Amino acid sequence: MDGRGKFDWSSDNQQTAASFFLVYNPGGRAQLYTGDNRPPEQHQQIGWFRKDGSIETAGTPAANNVNLLVETVILNYMALHGEQGQFGTRFPGNGLGSASLQDSLIAFDPIVNGTIV
67: how many CB neighbours lie within 10 A of its CB? Predict the structure, then answer.
């Protein structure tokens, strides 16, 4: 009874989004990506919102395309294993652009060394 009828999510408005991923590193805190010439702080957030609350659709390839959002998550998973250089080979038709652009979409330095068993 308390709170019923006050909020009912039925769909999104296609103008805003907030996707995130979590990283657990049993060895300690995950470090921001340092494999490019950008300051690590620029890897804290991928993309941004405009002042009016809508998404900046030109901010990243993933900002306006759910398929490229999935590719961005996969790229970050591979980067956690130090395999981001293989992304273009494993996904030859990807839409994430050059290696430099891909580097700008990586959030954390690798946390996995070797094979996980």
Answer: 11
